[in-house]
Design goal:
Blueprint lengths: L1 H15 L1 H17 L4 H14 L7 E4 L3 H10 L4 E4 L1 H14 L3 H6 L1 H9 L11 H6 L2 H5 L1 H13 L5
Parallel strand pairs: 1-2
Helix pairs in contact: 1-2, 3-4
Keywords: Membrane, Transmembrane, Transmembrane helix
Length: about 160
């Protein structure tokens, strides 16, 4: 019933205000279609886009670290570079930091909180230089044992490109 209602709402928006809501309708349709985050849905969508325009092949596509989307982009658009959104890198590092039990220290110590947030900036450092940048950080050297699980997470997670 909700699904049917959603389609009706989208249809009404589209037909009542075609000039202003075409993009909104398309966005809502995509959200509805891709909401399950299944690889086959992403593949079907990307192949359909490519069929509409065979020359469609962006050099870079930015995503929010959905594995299905990342896989699909690599599969359908072979020569496209996938980049992650800085907001999502920061959010996932923050979540992992809390999962490691650092939330109290993060809340109580503003310097610690700032330094942990700054770790997300490592995503802008060329891959070959990340280790040197960490070793140049006095904060990291003073807290290396405690931060190792967080840096391992940053390094090992496949959403960091």
């Amino acid at each position: 019933m909700a699904l049917f209602l959603r389609h009706q709402i989208y249809f009404l928006k589209f037909t009542l205000f075609p000039k202003f809501n075409l993009i909104m309708f398309f966005h809502q349709f995509l959200y509805y279609y891709l909401i399950k985050r299944k690889i086959h849905r992403y593949v079907n969508f990307c192949k359909a886009l490519k069929n509409l325009n065979e020359s469609l092949n962006s050099k870079t596509i930015m995503v929010d670290f959905e594995k299905a989307a990342i896989y699909t982009i690599h599969h359908v658009f072979n020569n496209t570079s996938v980049r992650g959104c800085f907001f999502h890198v920061s959010r996932n590092i923050w979540r992992h930091m809390h999962n490691l039990g650092f939330q109290q220290r993060y809340t109580d110590n503003s310097i610690f909180a700032l330094q942990v947030r700054m770790m997300a900036a490592l995503s802008f450092v060329p891959e070959n230089d990340v280790e040197n940048e960490l070793l140049d950080s006095e904060f990291y050297l003073q807290n290396e044992e405690m931060l190792t699980p967080l840096t391992n997470y940053f390094e090992d997670t496949d959403w960091v490109f």
